[in-house]
Structure formats: C-alpha cells, structure tokens
User: What shape does this take?
Amino acid sequence: MQLLNFDPEQLDPGMVRKRRAFVGLMVFLITAPAVVLMADLHQRTGYDGWKLAHLAVFAVLFSLLALGALQALLGFILRRQGGDSCQISASVDWAGDHGPLPVRLAVVMPVCNEDAGRVMAGVRAIYESLEADGRLPEFDFFILSDSSDPNCWIAEEVAWAGLVRDLGAGGRLFYRKRRVNTNKKSGNIADFCRRWGSHYRYMVVLDADSIMTGGAIVALARMMERNPGVGLIQAVPRLVSGETVFARLQQFASRLYGPVFTAGINYWQLSEANYWGHNAIIRVAPFIKHCSLPDLPGDGPFGGRIMSHDYVEAALMRRAGWQVWLAADVEGSFEECPANLIDFAKRDRRWLQGNLQHARLVVGPGFHPLSRWHFTLGILSYLTSPLWLAFLVLSTTIAWRFKATGLTPLPVDSFSDHVAWRFGTEAVLLLGLTVGLLFLPKILALLDLRSRPAEAAAFGGWLRLGAGILLETVLFTLLAPVLMLFHTRFIGLTLCRQSVGWKTQRRGYDGGAGWREIMGTHFGHTVLGLAWLALAWWINPTLAQWMSPILAGFILSIPVSYFTGGLAPGRGLRRAQILGTPEESAPLPELVRLEERMAALALTRETGPAPDDGLRDAVTDPYVNAIHVSQLRTKDDPSPANESRFAGLRERLLREGPAALTARDKLALLLDADSMSRLHRELWAKPEAELAVSWREALERQPEPEAGEVEFTVNDAVLAMK
Assistant: This one.
C-alpha cells in the first residue's frame, strides 16, 4: 500500500459518472458486433419467433460475458500502472501511522452447527496474530452461536472455555448462544448489536471459516478512522485450506484471476461497493440505525425474512448516505470453500433463493442506482443458467427445424454490399469472439503475473502454473454445464414456492460425497447428456461436435464429481504442486498455525459423535455441566406448570435414556439451568438400577468423583476457565 493522497469524502461525482459511462459504453461496443453477427446468421434463413428469442438470449449472455472480460482488462491496466488512484487504501498514510487505535473494536464470528474445533482454531489464529502485533488490547472477540445441534452446542462451549483458559483471554473472548434463532445470521448479528453494539465503534464480521491476519484487521480499522463518512469496507477473502480437487480448483482460479477482477470492479464501484457478509469492517452506529432488515410482503420463498442479507445491508447503508468500499488490495483475508460439486450446489441454492428475493428491492424506494444494479447482477448471476440452457435448447430446435425444412443459407446476406463473408466464416468469427472473451481474463492474469516473478514462483513456477491452468480449464468446462442444470432446477423449485433450509456445508478440508449420493444426484444429468448427444447427432453431426464440450459435462458428471470431490487426488496434486497457490508455498504464520491445529484435530476424531453425546456429556461430566450451566439464564420465578413438566422430563431422561425424549424436549432441558444442575446431581446420586443403560455406560467412562465433587459449582467452572 502506498499513499496517494486520496480523500473519499472529496470523490468527484463527474469522474464517477465518466467511469461508469465508459464501462457501459465499452460493454455495448464489445457486445454490439457479436449481436450483429448473430443477427446476420439468422437473416440468411429468415426470421421467426425461435430465432428472435435465440438472438435476445444471446445478447443478454454476451453482454454479461463482455462485462466480466472488461473488468479483467481494466484491472490489468490499473495494476500495470501501479494501482488505481481512487481506492480506499490510498487514503491512509501507511508509512507514518503506526500508533494505537483510539477505539475498541469487536471481532464477531456467527456460527451455526459448525465444527467447534475449526471455529476455535480460527479464532485462536486471529487472536494470536493481533497479540503478536501488539494490538490485542484494542479488540474483543465474540463467538455468536445459533447452533441447534446439541452436540455442536456443547462442543462449542467446552472448546471456548478451553481456548479462554489457554490464551488467558478472560474478559476478552466471549461466547453467546441464542435461545431463539430468529432471522439466521443477520438476526444473530442484530442481537449482538442490540446487546453490546453501543460499546464499539466498529465490528469486524467473520464467517465460521474466516481467517484474517492482525495486520489486515488493523488496516481496515485505520481506513475507517481516516474516513468518517465510510460505513462499511469489504476486504477480498482468498480461498485456502482446500484438500479436494474441487476446492483446490476454486482457490487456484480465484487466486490467479481474482486480483485483476477485483481491481476492475473497484474501478466502477468506488464508494458504492457491495458487502459479501464476512471479512468486512462495519461502523456499528449507522449499521444499527439504518440496516435493520424489513420483512418482505407475502410468504416464502419470495416474501418473509430476507435470506441474503449482505447486499441489502450494503444498500441500506448507502441509502442512508454512508459510503461502502471494496478494499481490493488489503492482504491477509482468507476463507474456505465447499469440498465438492454437490455441496457447492447446495450452498448456491440458498444463495439463489436469497438473490431472487432481491427482485422486489430493485425498485425499492430510495436505493442508490448502483445498489439496484448490484441487486440485478446478483439475480442475473443465477438467471444466466436457465438463459444458457434456453440458448442451447433454442439452438438445437433451430437446427432441427432447419433440417426438417431442407433449406440452405442464402448466398446473399446483409453484409454483401460491404463484406463478402460466407455463413461459415461468420459462425467461426462469432465463436472466436466468444472464446476470446472467455480466455481473455486468463491471458491478462498471466501477463499480470509475468511482471511479478516472485509471485509466479510461488505458484510453483511457469510449468506447474501452465499445467494447473490446463487442468482448471478442462475441469471447469466439464463442471459448468452441470452447475447450469443445478441452478435451472433450483430456480424452478423456487418459482414453485419450495423454500430451502440452511445446513452446514462440508469445507474444503472435508471429504467428498459418497458414491450413492453422487449417483443419485447426477444420474439424470448423465441420461440427459446421452439423449441430447444422440438428438444433436441425428440432426447434424456438426451440431453435435459444437455442443460436445457441454454435453460431455452432462455425460461425465458422475466420474468428474467423484474425482473432483476426492481427498486422495487433491492431496496428490498438492504434493505435485499442481493447482498450488502462494498461500500454500509460502503460507502466513496464521495459516500455518491453523493447518497444524486442524491436523492435530483430525488425529483425535476418527469418527463423529453419536447423536446424544453432547447431552450425555453436559449431564455426566462435572466440568462440562458447570460450563454449560454458567451460560444459561436462571429463572427468577418458574411457574409450577413448567416445574412439573421439567421434573417429568428429567425423570424420564434418566430412567429411559435420551432416545426416549423428542429433540424439542432435549433442547428444552439443555436450555433450563435448574434442570441441568439437577440432572447432574441426580445422575451421580441415583442407584445404577434406576438409570438407563446408556447412562450407566456414560458413568463408566467418567472418573469416579471425589467426595464433594458432585457439588461442583458454576463458580468452579468460571475459575477453571480463567
């Protein structure tokens, strides 16, 4: 980062309009020739409704392709010039500003049924990074749990208590479990803001898989302090920790092509950037005042609670007059990614439904025009899949109708007076334009890397880099058509008003899906590919050849999904340094510590917990019980009806075992401090004959308590944590 004397408060509106007008004009100038070529191809055989629809879909798809390629080109040019003069990092004097921050900040990590070991390993890495930089006194940490799985909940509490003890973080590292998980992650953050937000000027929002260095967090805080009119700054997270081929593909592609794209995005977004929901710093007071999410009219999936909260919160912040920036050049921001194609598609289904909800907000009152454009692009990012499928279906239909009529292209066309192009010449030229835009970001990224020899070496050298690009291109070519089918199906289900739940995804270090799940998911894709290939070959072998890369993705979906989701081939590629990234070859200390802790955790948990292990531990183990009870609210005056109900549940739980209770009843007991204290004492005091077999087995695994240990109190647990 270097000082360029940039003041976001003095951003010239005329310059901003010129940049955005230039981007729009260039997209038009790139798209128009391709649309004219496609229109001329249809003109040779005469227009009908099919061809008009085909041309319209092509125009939309090509314009989005042109926008992506243009962003990469602009980013490449800016990076070659040493950076954009209008970027939020250029507003800070990095060379001269090293003093302590004048405010306290909150680092908040919402979690929901995540791997507690991974969550605490990430928190530890961030905590120790800030401590090593001498910045720890300026920060507090909050783990905000919405976990509904008792195993995850109890594991979080125990892991948090251990982390507080190990780090000596009493009074600085806090854990809170919400009783009612209203409005998912956005509700979790809102609850934090209501309870503790007034104590902090800024909060750094993370995901359960986020990692940020202390330097990155402090850099974001300095940008906020320097610019009092900025409400939110989004850092760009790089993908790390991928073990499967699919995860490594994502982190390789995002690391190689991402820098030119993000630089190009910042060129036109400027102070109206977007929020991605994590790895960002937020000014708390305006966030509380202006970013409360409204309920949309009607029921789900389009009405009710807003699912994709981040775009909306950024739009509300900007509507209130606060700037939102993308810190495209801040180093030290990381996250993880899904381990396989099926989990990636499941995550996309949640995001897809949330983005489709934004259709109502595109015309919402008071939003900045660029916020409306963000909503539109978010919707189009998923609508391109059914549009692409529609384009392929229309192409096949037009070819079939052409074969059925026996017509041939007219020898004279609309360009005949100026350019004597044949039908095949135009078709090849149009294909060349499309492929050129697809590969332009790859070429630009390599040219950008050529000016940074050390970074190229960190990718494993040019030979391994070339092998990685080739493998990434082939595999993504096969994966993209399958994702197109997934997205199209999800949009259909959403339009049929089928809402989707929110489940924890497998991360990049987890294994892939099993054969049964893969076969059940991709069998229909394979059948569709074989049938479509036969139809295209019957219509015209040339058509089948042109469509073969897409149809190959359908046909090979089962083996490709299995291969890319496998840990063994992914680790083999890592040993060969194929699809490697600088974060692997020269990892930061935070990533090294995270990987070491995850490797240690993997050795201690060969199998997952049984369904009721969390409840059993919270009742049986004195230490776990005391930690758990210390996190619960005691009731001042419980009603006799509730007391009677809980007494019956406790008696049944001990006599018949956890399996005898419903999930709702078990959660009710776990949330009741008095019941958990009584259950622990009664379990250790009752004769074994009055206990279920599962409790006897649990007691056998516990060391025999010393005299008086049954009365282990909440205060003892708090002292142990300190």
User: Anything to note?
Assistant: Residues 369-405 form the longest helix (37 residues). DSSP finds 27 helices and ten strands in the chain. Residues 613-721 form one domain.
